[in-house]
Amino acid sequence: MKNPHLILGVLEGDDIGHEVVPASVQIASAAAEKHGLRIEWKPMPVGRRALDTHGSTLPAGTLETLAKMDGFVLGPIGHRDYPKGPGAINPHPIMRKHFNLFANVRPTRSYPDIGCLRDDVDLVIVRENNEGFQPDRNVVAGSGEFRPSEDMTISVRVITRKGSERVARVALALARSRRKLLTVVHKNTVFKLGCGMFVEECLKAAKDFPDVRVNEVIVDTMAMRLVRDPQNFDVVVTTNMFGDILTDEAAGLVGGLGMAPGLCIGDGDFAMAQATHGSAPDIAGKGIANPYAMVDSTRMLLDWLGRRKGIAEAVAAAGSMEKGLTAALGDGKARTGDIRGYGNTESFTRAVIGNL
Ligand code: ATP
């Protein structure tokens, strides 16, 4: 029998990260206790506070220490507000690359009464995480964006067969565990080689999943269909930047960024919980941030680690978290203002714990 024990890093990030990450740890701890799962939380500095205390937003040794754990919770990073300087880097692309977390799994689901534009959304977008159009991810050194002259900028998009195939396999396996439908989103009408290769690799991988139906949608059509008929999608797989944009759009359908969780995974048994939203400096320190996205990302982490490592207690704890979250979302006094509630971060957290 597996020892029901997980070691997880806690990196709060910036701004509302100092509010929504502690809420996630509190809730996950209560759920773990209920099911006899021991979680050793290891807080580590990252972001603006780490810059002030350690001279770097990603202090030396962080990656090596994290590598000895089962996974970690990363709060939102407000890198746009970092002062310019050598230690002020955006840590999360480095983490995704270092741990080879090439698939960003981002679910979107409607809940009643919280101001969703649609009441029938239940889909997951799997976004390729480590190449594509993100200039900080598609090269080993330097940037995938450069300026040969004052009046010209060139941005490079990298698509590889391996990168496409492995993210397709994650999405196909996920579709197999859900409604068995995969939609490949691309623009191979224009990016004939790049998106062409992505689609080719997705279709090749799909041959190993004959029980999963696969269709294709062009990205601009997808932007429209997400609004018009989101109920017709189950799992969607796409390249990095299309995924970045479509996941925010999907969040808009179901109450906004506070409702958009995510889990970054790769081939190994190691994962990073990271909500889709940024650090929202405009509402930081007020205690009103919606912790749902970060808490649900943490729930996904427990569920995924539990299944990968055969720790039933972790899967059960995640199940309790889901129950608590659903109940808290249904409680107008507990939920936060962004989702038509009268509560705050603390009341939502209490409501989840009370309903685990
Ligand atoms: P990034 O590019 O780093 O993802 P962003 O430009 O998408 O950041 P966010 O920081 O995610 O911006 O936030 C956009 C706005 O959404 C915020 O100003 C805030 O009002 C709202 N918001 C984001 N996250 C939450 C949350 N958890 N709870 C409530 N409101 C939120």
UniProtKB/TrEMBL annotation:
SUPFAM superfamilies: Isocitrate/Isopropylmalate dehydrogenase-like
Gene Ontology BP annotations: isocitrate metabolic process; tricarboxylic acid cycle
GO molecular function: isocitrate dehydrogenase (NAD+) activity; magnesium ion binding; NAD binding
Signal peptide as annotated in the record: none
Xref: Pfam families: Iso_dh
Isopropylmalate dehydrogenase-like domain ranges (all copies): 7-352
PROSITE patterns per UniProt: IDH_IMDH
Keywords, ordered alphabetically: Oxidoreductase
Family: Belongs to the isocitrate and isopropylmalate dehydrogenases family.
Protein name: Isocitrate/isopropylmalate dehydrogenase family protein
Protein species of origin: Ramlibacter montanisoli
